[in-house]
Amino acid sequence: MIFRLRALVIAASLINWVNNHPLKAEVENNNNEVSLDGLVKIQGVYHQDYQKHEASDIIAHTVAFGLTARVHEWSTARLSLLYEERLPEVLTPLEIDEAFITLGNDTVTPIYLAMGQMYVPFGRFESNLISYPLTYEMALIRAQAVQLGFKSASVYGSIYGFNGNPDDDQNDTIDNYGSNLGFAQETDFHSYDIGIGYINSIGNSFTIAGILPVEPTEYDYVDGLSTHLILNWGNVSLIGEYITALNEFKVNHFAFAGQGAQPQAWNLEAAYRFNLVGKKLTLAAGYQATEEALALNLPQSRILSALSWAIDDNTTLGLEYAIDEDYDLTDGGTGESAKTATLQLAVEF
User: Fold this and answer.
1) Nearest to residue 202, comparing CAs of 151, 156, 262, 148?
2) Model confidence over 198-214: pLDDT tens digits?
3) pLDDT exceeds 80 at position 215
4) Which of 26, 28, 219, 287: CA 20 to 30 A from 265?
5) pLDDT of 140-159, one tens digit each?
6) Confidence class for position 13, pLDDT limits 50, 70, 90
7) DSSP code of 300?
8) Nearest-CA neighbor of 198 among 163, 159, 239, 147?
9) DSSP state letter for 296
10) Which pLDDT belongs to residue 19?
11) Which one-letter DSSP state was computed for residue 210?
12) Which of 291, 118, 120 lies closest to 198, judged by CA?
C-alpha cells in the first residue's frame, strides 16, 4: 500500500508537471539538449485464477519517468525510473530502470557504443495489446552491459557483453554475451521489421533467474534464440515472435515433467486501426503460448482481445480480455483456465 500511494503521488506530480510544461520539451543550454519523457498507466483489473478465486483492484500499474541528455554531438546519457505493480501481488519498487551512456553520431557513422544499465536486445516484445506478451514475461533481460552496434538505412545489429548473475565460477567475470541482427524499412503505406537474436545465457531473464540457484558453482549456461517479424500494411498490423532456450537446464535447477526444462514462448498477433467519430481506435487479438515453462508460473496458452481508443495524441483508454489455459495435470498443472479483464487509462509524454 505504501508503494501504491507513492506511485500515485509520483503520477500526480508528473501529470501536474506536464500540465505546466510542453510535452517532450527540449531544453538547450550551452549546446546541450535535454528531453523528458514519461508513462503513467492506471488499471482496473478483474482476475479469476485457476482455482476460481476472484480478485479485483484499481492499481497504478506503471509509473515511468525518463531523461535523455545529449551533452555533446557524440555523447548522450539516458536515465529512467520505473515503478510497476501487477495483479496478483507482483510489485516492483521505484527503481533505476536504465542508466547508460551512448557514444555515437548517426549523421557521421552508423556505429555506436553504449555502456551502462540497459535492456539487452534479446527479444522484440512488440504488441498492440494491453498486457505484456508471454515472450516478454519469459525472456526480458536487463543488465549492466557494454554494447557495440550499428544502424544503417535498413539494417541494424549489435554485439554485447555483461556479467550475469548468478555466475558459473568464483571469478565473477564478464562472460555473458549475445548478438542481434535485423532488417527494417518504412514507407508511407507499409513497414516491416524482421530480426534474430542470440544470447549465451537465457537464464539471466528476470523470470528464469528468479528460480535458478544463486550459488555460483552450481549455475549452468543455457543458450537462447529469439526471432520476430512485424508487418504494417495500411491499417493492418501483424506481429510474430518466438523465443526458445536452445538446450535444457539441469533438472535440479529448472525441471519439466521430471526432466531438465527447455522453455519456449511465442506470440502471434493481429491488429486493425480505424477511425470513429474522429478518434483513432485499434482492435487487436492475439494467441500466445509456452512450452515447458510451468515452473515460471506462465500459462500454457493465452487468448486475448483488446480495443484501444486514442483520446488524444498522448492519452489512451483500452479494454482487454484474456483467457489463460494452465498446463495439464499430467505435467504438474491444474488443467484449468483463468480469466482476466483489464481497463487501462494511459498517458505517455
Assistant:
1) 262
2) 999 999 999 999 998 87
3) no
4) 219
5) 999 999 999 999 989 999 99
6) very low
7) S
8) 159
9) G
10) 47
11) T
12) 120
As a three-state string, the secondary structure of 264-276 is EEEEEEEEEEEEE
In sequence order, the β-bridge partners of residue 100 are 78, 116
Number of Cβ within 10 Å of residue 73's Cβ equals 11
Give me the amino acid identity at 14.
L
* Cα–Cα separations (whole angstroms), residue 233 to 181, 230, 236, 305: 23, 10, 5, 20
- The H-assigned helical ranges of the chain are 2-19, 134-139, 206-209
| The model's pTM | 0.88
- Strands (DSSP E) contained in the chain are 26-29, 32-48, 54-72, 75-86, 90-104, 111-119, 142-151, 155-162, 176-186, 190-199, 224-233, 236-245, 255-256, 259-260, 264-276, 279-291, 301-310, 315-325, 337-348
Q: What's the rounded Cα separation, in Å, for the pair 333 and 87? A: 20
Largest CA distance in the chain: 66
Structure confidence at residue 168 as a pLDDT band (50, 70, 90): low
List, in order, residues 6 or more apart from 47 with CB less than 8 Å away: 54, 55, 56, 87, 88, 338, 339, 340
- One-letter amino acid for residue 2 of the chain: I
Type of residue found at 309: W
